[in-house]
Structure formats: C-alpha cells, structure tokens
Fold this sequence. Notes:
One of its GO terms (molecular function) is hydrolase activity, acting on ester bonds. The protein is mostly helical. The chain contains 14 helices and five strands. Strands 2-1-3-4-5 form a five-stranded parallel β-sheet, sandwiched between helices. α3 (43-63) runs antiparallel to α14 and α4 (121-128) packs across α14. The model is unreliable at 1-57, 59-66 and 250-256 (pLDDT under 50).
Amino acid sequence: MQPYSFKAQQNISSQHCNPSLSLSQKKKKKLIAEEKIDCMENHHSRYYLTFLLPVLALVVVVLNVSNAQPLVPALFIFGDSVVDVGNNNQLHTIVKANFPPYGRDFKNHRSTGRFCNGKLASDFTAENLGFTSYPPPYLNLRVKGNNILNGANFASAASGYYDFTAKLWDAIPLSQQLEHYKECQNILVEVAGQSNASSTISGAIHLVSAGNSDFIQNYYINPLLNKVYTADQFSEILMQHYANFIQACFPHISTLQHVKQNLYALGARRIGVTTLPPMGCVPAAITLFGSDSNVCVARLNTDARNFNTKLNSTSESLLRNLPGLKLVILDIYQPLYELVTKPSENGFFEARKACCGTGLVETAILCNKDSIGTCANASEYVFWDGFHPSESANKVLADDLIAAGISLIS
Ligand SMILES: *[C@@H]1O[C@H](CO)[C@@H](O)[C@H](O)[C@H]1NC(C)=O
Ligand SMILES: *[C@@H]1O[C@H](CO)[C@@H](O)[C@H](O)[C@H]1NC(C)=O
Ligand SMILES: *[C@@H]1O[C@H](CO)[C@@H](O)[C@H](O)[C@H]1NC(C)=O
C-alpha cells in the first residue's frame, strides 16, 4: 500500500499552490472595496444581472438551442462508466459495453460502449447546451482533426480519482485522461490556431464524473483498502486526488509527485463535477452488499453522502484559491434517490431490478444478448443494468443538472 499520511492535513491554500495569490492580496482587497461601492450604487441592476441572466440562459437552453450556436464552445468529459462513450472499446479490459443489448435504444440501435440502453445524462447535457453531436471518444477518433473542435470525451469505465482503481481493471486513470487532454489541446492548436484554441478551452465546460468505481469496483471488494482504511479515510484519499486533478498543489505528498497535469493548469475554467449517486441503491449493490434485504444498503449511501460533503468543501476551497475558476458540484444523489424510492411518482415502475438479465447483478460482459430475462421496455426501469441508470432515468438526471449547471454558462 502507498504510505499516506492522514495527519498532514491538506491545506489547499498552501502558498506552494499559487504564490501569486499572496502577492496580489493588496490588489484583491482593493477589488473587493471597489466591488462593495459598485454593489451599493448598482444594487438593482446587479440584482437583475444575478437573477435574470440565469433565467434567460435557462430559457435559451430549453427553447432555443436547436438552430442557435451552442451555449459554450466545447464540452470535454472525464471520468468513469457513467460518462464513457466508447474509450474502453479500444482497451484490453473486461469492463466494456460495446455489444447488444447495450445501445438498443440508441441512434441506429448501436452499442457504442455506453453503459446504457440509450443516452447517458452527459449526452442529454450536450443536447441541452445546443450541440448537434456528442463529444467523441478520444481514443476512437480515426482522424483527430475537426471533430474535436467542439470537445472530446476522455472517460473510461472503471476509472476513478484513485489511479489504482483504473489499473486494477486495465482502464484509463484520470491522470492519463489529462495526458490525453493535453495531447488533444495540441491538436486543437494545430487545427484552429493558438488563440482560437485558448478561447475554446477557457470557454468550454469540463464535466467530471468519478468516485463510483473507486468504491464499488475497488474499496468495497479490496481488502488491501478496506482492511486498512475506513470509508471516511478512503474518501479523504480520494479528495486529495480530486484536488490534484483540478490543480496539483500537494508537493509534500511524495506519492503524488508524479502528477504532471491538472485541469486548471491546462486552462480549464468552467468545471462541473458530479456527486456520487446513492451507491447503496443500485441493484447490484443491494444484491452484493445488502445481506438478503431488498432495500438500499444504508452503509453505502452513508459513504456516498459523506464523500459528497467532502467534495463540496474541497471544491469550495479550490474556488477560494483559483482565480477565474467556475466550479460547480452537480448533485445526482438526491434526484436518483427520489427515483429509486418513489418510482411510480416519477413515471417508473421498477427500481429494484434493472432491465438487463435478472436485473440483480449483471453489468458489462454479464449483460449480453443471451442474458435471460431482459425486459422489453427499459423506459419503465430506473436502472438499465446492475450498476447504471436507464436512458429515461438519465433524462431526469440531466434535466436536474440544468439548474445547477446554469452558473457555468452564465
Ligand atoms: C479562428 O478565429 C478567427 C477569428 O475569430 C476566425 O476568423 C477563424 O475562422 C478561426 N479559425 C478556425 C480554424 O476556426
Ligand atoms: C456546496 O454546498 C452549498 C450548500 O448546499 C452550495 O451553496 C454550494 O454551491 C456548494 N458548493 C459547490 C462548489 O458546489
Ligand atoms: C415503453 O414504456 C413507455 C412508458 O410506459 C411508453 O411510453 C412506450 O410507448 C413504451 N414503448 C414500447 C415500445 O412499448
């Protein structure tokens, strides 16, 4: 195991991170003072700016995107199977979904590698932002040219904040996803020129979805972790990696010194990070960890909520220390919990069992065209396979993300 030191309380505001911060304290104070005056003088116009702009943006999002420009220049996506659109197809891993019945409700009934019968929440998000195509899986691009002008997807199923999770499953660690992003940016510069590339990157939304596999596909099944760390301690480790992913600033942690890239240094200024879902409510988790009960596993949900709380506070301190950054946490815990606990009120009829196979455990290779019991109509199921929501549940999640994500585009 890696020798982590929990006592070294991570101070994100450490001056290692950002020496320019302390230098500009005076300037900052002046700015704050100016802002106060400005605020008093323009109270009303500010009020409208703060509250009307998001509303207008929302109207634009919902009503008027089909023939307009997208609301942001590009969408770049990082993370795990919640957002992987086919990068794992190219890898020697068992964590794949590029065969039927995956994708049976997708365009042309194509199994793309998405862990879903149809669209992912991030696909709906791309549509809501006004894009006419989805960010392509970076590894699948035959020609890495014009098709990345509007973004790319670097996500890899079974990846997580903890690089070792991805390594266990031969997936692409987040650190490697950043290397791919760097490479992608170089291509963008070649295709569009330096200044267009820079404005594309700073204006783009960067969507991050990770942490799920760190728990489900690593911590809970890996005695090297769960006998050594409590779930809370493991969450702390994940937070260090998360903060490093946004901006590497923990030089005193030797094990993380290999971290070379981070989103902020690569120019990302608009970042949305999804929370953990109610991990204890996914069908396979109930089967595997629920000790013969048919209800959500309370322990796993507690771990998820605890992680989400830390995610919020870590993000808040990143925000305090990284000038120009817009960073929002996109909550999928509550909306998914609502669907699971009150399916019929939300137009669903099955939440315990997934559509694919028996619906109790199957995912990846175990959910295939010969699986017995696969449902006829997935739109009534909250879950498509043992771990992943159906397209119709993803639609509900994506609709909920609009409100939270508004501040990223305004
Ligand atoms: C780069 O930006 C300029 C000015 O906005 C524009 O005229 C040009 O077409 C852009 N180039 C590419 C390749 O997108
Ligand atoms: C953290 O939670 C608070 C309270 O819900 C919320 O207002 C804030 O926006 C959250 N922070 C981030 C970075 O999303
Ligand atoms: C599937 O179920 C939904 C919701 O009940 C319904 O609207 C739809 O028509 C059904 N589709 C098929 C092919 O039966």
